[in-house]
């Protein structure tokens, strides 16, 4: 059905931003396709608006179910990373709406607040149209949007370096991490830096955030040693250590680092940079969350 396929990428983008999960977004879009295939097309005046409405409602329902599961998650929960490529990074608005730091903050919102924020801020839908999607009148939607913006503004890291500078700092970080250069890493870290790792109980990862430049630097330097690589590989079911590599890639619209073992991605690092220093590091290692990624070619 060509009409649905024309809008599939948009629907996936909406679902992913609401859910923070690639696999759940794909499930939601598949369910939207089933709804579309069974719909009476004579009643659909605007297919695009109809599909966005159906997809958004399904995503909100799915997020309500996921909230309970995430409360019992082993260790910190982080969104599933996506490889977006440089073409997305060049479009600031699109890149900003998938930044991991933003998706982490969106986890603090209610499902309705998150959906309203995404539909308004990322896709610029009119308040009246958002109201039809979430089942609220326009004044209520405006209030939800205002409350969501305030909460995001309070919690979202302050990015004050341009994209070229972020890439340069990430490249320096990448070089120091790949070489196990502890001193080089520490010089790039804020004194209050924290590292948040998501293993989901399925890969070796810290169950709490690691804080302080010395502690974070030592942790990062240690994970490149052969002994710790072997332990990490064993934790995800690989008894032998295949070729191990670090590669730069564009992750969620920003420069990131992909760790690979042979043809398998085993970890993704994303940096939040403030005042020229790395303030937060997100390490995604849960194999279920990164199975859809491929080592950069």
Q: What can you see in these coordinates?
A:
The structure is a single chain. The protein is an alpha+beta fold and 297 residues long. Helix content is 55%, strand content 16%. It has 14 helices and 6 strands. The chain has helices spanning 2-19, 22-37, 47-71, 85-89, 92-96, 100-106, 111-122, 127-134, 138-155, 163-179, 182-188, 213-222, 226-235, 287-290, and strands spanning 189-198, 210-211, 244-251, 254-261, 264-274, 277-284. A 6-stranded mixed beta sheet has the order 2-1-6-5-4-3. Strand 3 (244-251) and strand 4 form a beta hairpin. It starts with a helix and ends in a 7-residue tail after the last helix. The model has no long low-confidence stretch (mean pLDDT 88).
Radius of gyration equals 20 Å
Q: Give the CA-CA distance, first to last residue.
A: 33 Å
Residue fraction in strands: 15-25%
Shape: globular
* Spatial order of strands in the largest sheet: 2-1-6-5-4-3
Order of helices and strands: HHHHHHHHHHHEEHHEEEEH
């Amino acid at each position: 059905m060509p009409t649905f396929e024309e809008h599939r990428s948009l629907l996936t983008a909406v679902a992913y931003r609401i859910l923070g999960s690639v696999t759940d977004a794909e499930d939601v879009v598949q369910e939207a396709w089933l709804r579309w295939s069974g719909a009476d097309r004579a009643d659909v005046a605007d297919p695009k608006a109809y599909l966005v409405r159906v997809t958004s409602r399904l995503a909100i329902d799915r997020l309500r179910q996921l909230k309970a599961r995430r409360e019992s998650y082993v260790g910190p929960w982080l969104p599933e990373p996506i490889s977006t490529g440089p073409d997305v990074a060049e479009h600031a608005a699109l890149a900003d709406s998938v930044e991991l730091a933003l998706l982490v903050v969106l986890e603090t919102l209610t499902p309705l607040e998150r959906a309203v924020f995404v539909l308004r801020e990322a896709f610029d839908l009119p308040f009246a149209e958002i109201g039809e999607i979430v089942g609220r009148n326009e004044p209520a939607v405006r209030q939800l949007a205002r409350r969501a913006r305030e909460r995001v503004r309070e919690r979202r890291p302050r990015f004050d370096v341009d994209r070229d500078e972020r890439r340069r700092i990430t490249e320096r970080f990448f070089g120091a991490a790949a070489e196990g250069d502890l001193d080089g890493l520490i010089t790039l870290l804020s004194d209050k830096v924290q590292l948040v790792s998501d293993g989901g109980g399925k890969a070796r990862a810290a169950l709490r955030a690691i804080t302080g430049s010395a502690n974070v630097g030592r942790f990062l330097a240690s994970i490149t040693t052969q002994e710790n690589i072997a332990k990490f590989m064993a934790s995800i079911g690989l008894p032998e250590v295949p070729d191990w590599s670090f590669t730069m890639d564009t992750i969620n619209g920003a420069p990131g680092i992909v760790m690979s073992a042979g043809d398998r991605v085993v970890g993704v690092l994303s940096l939040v940079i403030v005042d020229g220093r790395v303030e937060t590091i997100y390490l995604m290692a849960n194999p279920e969350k990164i199975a859809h990624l491929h080592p950069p070619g």
